[in-house]
Amino acid sequence: MSGIRLVIALAAAGVSGACGRQSAGSTQADTDAIKRVNQEWTAAIKAGNVEGMMAPLTSGVVLLPPNEPAASGPEAVRAWSQRMADQVAFTEATSVLDEVEFAGDWAFTRGTFHGTFQPKAGGASASDVTKYILLWRRQPDGSWKIARDIWNSNNPVPAR
Amino acid sequence: MIREVLATAVTFLLVACTRPTAPARDASADRAAVNAAMDAYIAAIRSGDTTVITRFWVEDAVYMAPTTPTVHGRAALDSLHRSVVRTARVTDVSVRTEETVVDQELAFQTATYSETLQPAHGAPNVIRGRLLFVWRRQADGTWRIARAMGTDATGT
Questions:
Q1: Of chain A residues 2-41, which have a CB less than 8 A from chain B?
Q2: What are phi and psi of B49, to 5 degrees?
Q3: I need a surface site. Which of A117, A121, A125, A137 has the fewest CB within 10 A?
């Protein structure tokens, strides 16, 4: 794990006032479902609940974090998430979802994640705002799960 | 006669209550078209022609680069492109697509990239990282960039 600021990521959700752009085959219920999952995911991140972080991810999930290698598949993502949970405790974690757009069995969400966290090894708490895009995939049972997650920060890359 | 009216009404209701479906597409051809659009976009960047570069973006495009605020709209993107070209020359750029997914009118593309910016004075700046593009099919069948996010992996 490179700079500790980056662990804030997982660029989750929370949801406030996002607009949904429907496509053929999607409904308002799909938008509502994604918003609900987003909120639950954000809560899991804030709580450091790794099982909760994993719950809404597809079996082929890929994380594309800044300044470190991609994490492909549940095993790699679980390890990444556990490292984050081991290193920091979030005191604040909120997300503003700017948009949701559907395309068949795929959707993307775009927004910003605001987090304040305390390093578990000690030291001052830190805050960051990250921008994110999530790709969602409709599951055979009709639910939506996160398939890809990419994010970055407006702040400079932490010194190494 | 009544039976025919009822049958027509039932048919109408069935159609009205079914979620709309998208027309069938050739997924392989769509992916190839998106990848070709990316190749053309990279060629435009190599050319340094900002008018051509900006043409690849939709009017309400959103670009989220690392360490800078989000850029909204093609006009703002055009200003950004012109600003970059004024301060540095792109001497090398390469993109390696990792995945292209097309569903209906959107395409999602992930890739790794590397580019070298040569300022008027000083050493070249080599940047590399990952990107995710959301492409939107246009009315004429072409693909344009609707959303884009990049990460910086230069230090890794």
A1: 2, 23-25, 27
A2: -85, 100
A3: A121
User: Which residue of B69, B104, B132 is in closest CB contact with A64?
Assistant: B132
The answer to whether B28 faces chain A, any CB pair under 8 Å, is no
Cα→Cα distances A75→A88, A153, A155, B142, Å: 20, 25, 29, 38
Work out the average pLDDT over B48-59.
96
Lowest mean pLDDT among B1-10, B78-87, B142-151: B1-10
Residue A50 is inside which H or E element, if any? Answer: helix A50-54
**What ipTM is given for this predicted complex?**
0.86
For chain A, give percent helix, strand, coil, nearest 5.
Answer: 30, 40, 30
Q: Does B151 sit within 8 Å of A151, measured CB to CB?
A: yes
**B40 residue type, one letter:** A
Segment A138-152 mean pLDDT:
97
| A43 vs B: CB within 8 A | no
